[in-house]
Design brief:
heterodimer; A: Oxidized Rhodanese, domain 1; 2 domains; five-stranded parallel β-sheet; 11 helices; 9 strands; B: alpha+beta; Sulfite Reductase Hemoprotein, domain 2; Sulfite Reductase Hemoprotein, domain 1; Alpha-Beta Plaits; 4 domains; five-stranded antiparallel β-sheet; 16 helices; 22 strands
Chain lengths: ~290, ~600
């Protein structure tokens, strides 16, 4: 996979200038589609001007590339458009939606570097009401929609990796690529200690997030990964507890830091557990009782 | 004149500028932690060498899992500023379990940190002036200080500047980087609130009035105390050590311990054993002699920088005691909270507000809320960690207590019972510690909530009683100084290995410091019953106006007046309340708190001694 040509993050000032350049007399969008992935009622109460609404739940309805394609197409997304996504949930919902776009082959996608809450608290403008509704693109046909499987991990893909690690540990297999494969669990530490996919390492997703921005600066993310001896040659598979949101955000943390070989286990531990696949955990301490929650 | 010159050499009094904020951390230590972990992972330093380094930098091994570390943040005098609280919150979410633990020695601990992430944590701490340096290992540990210092009704002067100066002097000082064992200083504000007698060196402030009418500051110095498998109360070195001899006295004790302390026998190398073995009088003579040597030879640069603290708070004209407060708009629970959590401070119109935490645990969200509350309500602008594993917020205007109560309630920080029997202390035990036998941490939380549920935090007669638990004999939970103390054990009952505690009675700190006496062994799941039974018996037996703690003392002295004459009359009652049915009938009672499987003892090597 090549390095990204579109930035992972777009700053608020950049977004404003992208939206405001040129003239809008013809209803043109300057080649930008801004997507608000919060619930529809939240969108109605206020959103960034010119944003369109696409609640995350709609994106999670299907992993079928054709359906996803149709969903975005209706919002006016086509190959020429730069899509910018935001939410009010640490950037995690936006990340999952952005990832879905990449998955159907749309690489021109970025995340707004701050949440909607921060946007409005900083005094950037908002608008209320329905805004722009779905642009029905009649007559659109579902021709040759493909998916980028190089950024997705499925349970059987992970099973194969586990098998490979096991064989390697037993001295049977040989390492084929230059890098290693790292299974990265981004749930909170106590959940990870309790149970996780075998061989997974844990970096809680918050370790990638800033106090004010949805992701930490590149150097800090880079330092974290290098402390864990995860290198840019490695393939990293990220997963979280449910539907790939927190892991989606972590996916973009790695991409931001220039790690290009990253896959999202979009169905994450929720699927893994429902399939009764093996997990391991640490049982020799009562660490749950240390939590003040 | 000559006296004056001498003093100026040994001592610098400055008025506090820039808020007196100490920067304890050093950026270069982030690099050294990073480098050392890298070398260790590359196999270039030995386990022993790495362990020594790790402990020197506040990293203590996690229970039965070498991938993780506990990170202890040294908080001299327990002082934490709002930005530091916010940073602790963020670091706990990023690298730990989303909450932190306040210890009995006023430190902050982050648990289950992945060892390799330690440099990131270190960096985050140093940026806000905090350090982990010498929080563990055979060094001078956190210099603790009474949370009342500066606001105490009885204190002759505020010892906080002395505690900070002493901490500053010894931090990274070559003279204490490799002591035979850890070493602890404590500053009291007055006799009543004193923990001085359970420290290696305990210091109680005293004012002496000279013939010329001027008063001289000084300290009553206690040495050789400490809690553990064998505990001792510190003995009095001298009645009055003038402030300009404070440093040389402390240096003398440390030097003597360094020279004479036992470096071989791991379990008997705290200074209290040395003092005990040698005899206190002999040790005292050696200290005084050593002090003369220190006075003659020490560098002119070796001095304490005492920065007097000035709190920017408006003076209040009239005042009411907190217990008399009857605000017009009193919210639910306010009265109870004031009675058990708020105290008058020396300065008119201001109060100390205690924020008890269940066994010392506080979430990231609460830390952030506390930071905001501190900025808004405390005129000194910082919080203080307390020996009962909570926070104290001081210099709060009494007129704003209702508002503060509401804010604390919203954050889940207005728990009752801070200054009552419900303020139960429990070490981290099996939640994270290699030495633990039982889960004292969870049990402390359970006792606390039961006592609150029963409203016992409101009972004036129980107010001076304390309950403290440790998961092993090592006394991090300070069970030896509790009215009712417990330390973890494994006992075979009805042929089944059972989590249990040794029960102690009669411990206390303060003017009449005393160590508790072991009186019984109680299964973990019967501890709450035993405590409640004890309170029942006390209520039947007490004299008019007698508190639980005083009654226990009287019984331990064999001077009971009712049915319970002495401790031997009490023991059968405790035994009865401790009894367990066979495992088949009540399997739950044989399982520890926080566990759903058969009780087994698993421990690993402690590292305090490493």
């Amino acid at each position: 996979m090549l390095a990204r040509r579109y930035p992972v993050l777009v700053e608020p000032e950049e977004l404003l200038s992208m939206l405001n350049r040129g003239d809008h007399s013809d209803g043109g969008d300057n080649g930008v589609v801004l997507i608000d992935v919060r619930k529809e009622e939240d969108y109605m109460q206020g959103h960034i001007p010119r944003a369109v609404s696409l609640p995350l739940a709609r994106v999670l309805e299907s992993m079928d590339p054709r359906q996803l394609h149709m969903l975005f197409k209706r919002l006016g997304v086509d190959d020429s458009k730069h899509v910018i996504v935001y939410d009010d949930t640490f950037g995690a919902l936006a990340a999952r939606v952005a990832w879905a776009l990449e998955y159907i082959g749309h690489e021109k996608v970025s995340l707004l570097s701050i949440t909607y809450g921060r946007w409005s608290s900083l005094g950037y403008g908002i608008e209320r009401g329905a805004g722009r509704v779905d642009q029905q693109h009649e007559g659109y046909t579902l021709a040759d929609v493909s998916a980028d499987h190089s950024i997705l991990a499925t349970y059987d893909y992970i099973q194969a990796i586990l098998e490979g690690i096991k064989q390697l540990q037993q001295g049977k297999g040989t390492s084929t690529s230059t890098g290693k494969r790292v299974l990265l669990d981004v749930r909170e530490r106590l959940n990870y200690l309790d149970h996780h996919i075998p061989y997974a390492v844990n970096i809680p997703w918050k370790a990638f997030t800033g106090e004010e921005r949805i992701l930490k600066p590149i150097e800090e993310i880079d330092a974290l990964l290098s402390y864990r001896r995860i290198s840019r040659d490695d393939e990293v598979i990220v997963y979280c507890g449910s539907v790939g949101t927190l892991s989606g955000l972590s996916y973009y943390a790695l991409r931001l830091a220039g790690y290009s070989n990253v896959r999202l286990y979009a169905r994450s531990l929720k699927e893994w557990r429902s399939l009764n696949l093996p997990v391991e955990g640490f049982k020799d301490a009562h660490y749950w009782d240390l939590s003040a929650e | 004149m000559q006296k004056h010159q001498e003093r100026s050499i040994k001592h610098t009094h400055e008025s506090e500028g820039g808020g007196g904020r100490e920067q304890w951390g050093l950026p270069e230590e982030v690099t050294s932690v990073e480098e050392m972990i890298r070398l260790y992972r590359e196999g270039k330093v030995s386990d022993d060498e790495f362990r020594r380094f790790r402990l020197q930098h506040g990293m203590y091994g996690s229970r039965l899992n070498q991938n993780y570390t506990m990170i202890r943040i040294k908080v001299p005098a327990g002082i934490l500023y709002p930005e530091q609280l916010i940073r602790l919150a963020k670091l706990s979410e990023d690298f730990s379990i989303g909450s932190v633990h306040v210890t009995t020695r006023q430190n902050i601990q982050m648990h289950w940190v992945y060892l390799d992430d330690a440099p990131a944590v270190e960096k985050g701490l140093v940026e806000v002036g905090l350090t982990t340096r010498e929080a563990c290992g055979n060094t001078i540990r956190n210099v603790t200080c009474s949370p009342f210092a500066g606001v105490c009704m009885n204190e002759p002067f505020d010892v906080t500047p002395y505690a900070k100066a002493l901490a500053r002097f010894f931090l990274r000082n070559p003279m204490c980087q490799n002591l035979p064992r850890k070493f602890k200083f404590n500053f009291a504000c007055c006799d009543e609130h004193s923990y001085a007698r359970i420290a290696d060196v305990g210091l109680v402030p005293v004012l002496k009035h000279g013939a010329d009418g001027r008063s001289i500051r000084g300290f009553r110095v206690y040495i050789g105390g400490g809690l553990g498998p064998a505990s001792y109360l510190a003995e009095l070195l001298e009645e009055f050590t003038p402030e300009d001899m404070l440093l040389s006295t402390c240096m003398a004790v440390v030097r003597l311990f360094d020279r004479l302390g036992d470096r071989e026998k791991m379990h008997r190398n705290r200074m209290r054993y040395l003092v005990h073995d040698m005899g206190f009088e002999r040790f005292r003579e050696l200290v005084l002699k050593e002090r003369r040597a220190v006075e003659m030879t020490r560098s002119v640069l070796a001095k304490l920088y005492i920065r007097e603290i000035k709190v920017d708070a408006p003076e209040m004209g009239q005042d009411a005691m907190v217990v008399e407060l009857r605000p017009f708009n009193m919210p639910d629970g306010f009265d109870r909270w004031v009675k058990s959590n708020v105290m008058d401070q020396r300065q008119k119109g201001y109060a100390v507000v205690f924020i008890p935490l269940p066994a010392g645990d506080v979430t990231a969200r609460q830390l952030r809320a506390l930071a905001g509350i501190c900025r808004e309500f405390s005129h000194e602008g910082h919080v203080i960690t307390t020996p009962t594993q909570g926070f104290a917020l001081r210099w709060v205007m009494k007129s704003r207590l209702v508002e503060l109560y509401r804010r604390l309630s919203e954050a889940g920080l207005a728990n009752h019972g801070a200054l009552s029997i419900a303020s139960v202390v429990g070490c981290t035990s099996t939640t994270s510690c290699n030495l633990a036998i039982t889960n004292a941490h969870r049990l402390a939380k359970e006792i606390r909530s039961r006592l609150i549920e029963l409203g016992l935090d409101m009972d004036e007669s129980l107010k001076d009683a304390t309950i403290k638990l440790s998961g092993c004999p090592n006394s991090c939970g300070q069970h030896m100084i509790a009215t009712i103390g417990f330390f973890g054990a494994a006992v075979r009952i009805n042929n089944s290995l059972t989590p249990a505690y040794n029960m102690l009675l009669g411990g206390k700190v303060g003017k009449d410091s005393a160590l508790g006496r072991v009186v019984a062994r109680v299964p973990a799941k019967r501890i709450i019953d035993v405590i409640l039974r004890l309170i029942d018996v006390y209520r039947e037996e007490r004299l008019e106006g007698e508190s639980l703690a005083s009654w226990i003392d009287r019984v331990l002295d064999g001077k009971g007046t009712g049915k319970i004459k002495g401790i031997d009359d009490l023991k059968p009652i405790i035994e009865e309340a401790s009894r367990l049915p066979p495992p088949a009938e009540d399997p739950e009672s044989y399982v520890d708190y926080g566990s759903d499987s058969r009780f087994i003892v698993r421990t690993a090597r402690g590292e305090c001694a490493a």
